[in-house]
Amino acid sequence: MKYIYLITTLCTTFINCTSPTTTENDTSAETEIPDKTLSDDSLINLVQEQTFQYFWDGAEPNSGLARERIHIDGEYPKNDQNVVTIGGSGFGLMAILVGIHNEFVTQEEGLARIEKALNFLDTIERFQGAWSHWYFGDTGEPKAFSENDDGGDIVETAFMAQALVCIREFYKNGSDEEKKMAAKADELWKGINWDFYRNGKDVLFWHWSPKHGWGMNHAIQGFDECMIAYILGASSPTHAIPADAYHKGWTREGKIKSSVTKYDIPTILKHNSKEGEVGPLFWSHYSFLGLNPNGLSDQYASYQDVVTNHTKIHIAYAADNPKQFKGYGADKGWGWTASYSTNGYNAHHPDNDPTGVISPTAAISSIPYTPKESISFMRYLKDSIGDKVWGKYGFYDAYSETEDWYPQRYLAIDQGPIVVMIQNYKDAFIWNLFMGAPDVKEGLQKLGFSTP
Known about the structure:
Layout: H1 2-5, H2 7-13, H3 40-56, E1 69-71, E2 83-85, H4 86-101, H5 107-123, E3 134-136, E4 142-143, E5 152-153, H6 154-171, H7 176-190, E6 207-208, H8 227-235, H9 243-250, E7 261-262, E8 265-266, H10 303-320, E9 338-341, E10 344-347, H11 360-364, H12 371-385, E11 390-391, E12 394-395, E13 409-411, H13 412-427, H14 429-435, H15 438-447
Antiparallel strand pairs: 1-13, 2-3, 3-4, 5-6, 7-8, 9-10, 11-12
Helix pairs in contact: 3-4, 3-13, 4-5, 4-6, 4-13, 5-7, 6-7, 6-8, 8-9, 8-15
């Protein structure tokens, strides 16, 4: 919800720029998209490996973490080029594990990069164990996300913690050096004081600042991208939240359940938006990079149905195309999420689609839920739009055929889910790491979840 809640602030940061520039990691020319003879499997692999490079070649060099954004086509906002994102870096560290798993990089290279990243995470300022939303990668200083949001961010921290659990599970039975890395990840994970972020109540609060305390006063209630914070909070071996925080806070004592349908498709849970609306697709991605929705259920929902139906509603909207935007269709362009937009930055969804902007991450990261339509979308981009939407780090963040708008820009929070969810579609690699963690199993059981 934060990406919608702070949309005004973000728009002032993400305004389109036109002056040409590059970063030190953006010196090579964009890669031309391959010809139309590529098989589906080869296309999927290409998209995944090319997108992985955002977190490998494109990483901020001092920290090893993911830059918040990379601009190929224009200058950065002031003092922004070396800003790293904690949530996007969590996605990126999971992507590094995927890179090792697929031999995009060697075991030694991957371990060295993860070691650099975890050492940085261990040395920068934390707030009751939680990280801030942004840091300057070159100095390690926190960067305020907004006026009162200059301290701990428990949701961005949850996205990072999801990766820390996976790193621990990946390395815990390895060599002495790998076991050391597993122990470091475990130490960072156990250092997060989830219970503090309840502020004594049966709900998690998004932000805490040494200067402003609980001034943001943003209680986290579902359904949106924040579910993983409650899962990890309940799973913590050191600073766990009680089950009531989930049932009374996140689910609002069961009021999260919904009978709303869109295009005759049940939403199942009330989306954290205006009554009757469905949200952007990152709500069905970010928590589920590690948390496997397949067969996952509690007293409120089957989460496989929640995320699949959410995606199918977006596809149905594309097929309906009520505003007759160019390039929309169930087998063409579809998928809306928080991304760059023609007016800066926007959390697009079927009820908020003013200029026909499509974000490739929305459809591609949905590949475990709707593989046929997600692959059709990738092929449509490759065959029908081509180099306008394809560059050094895979498909660019957003485009509009209607507006003839093709910015050459990337965002970490959009690139990361592409790499991870393609892998989960292939072999459930990240899902298996996360769901196999003993503390995660205990946390899910504590909250009343059942899994296969």
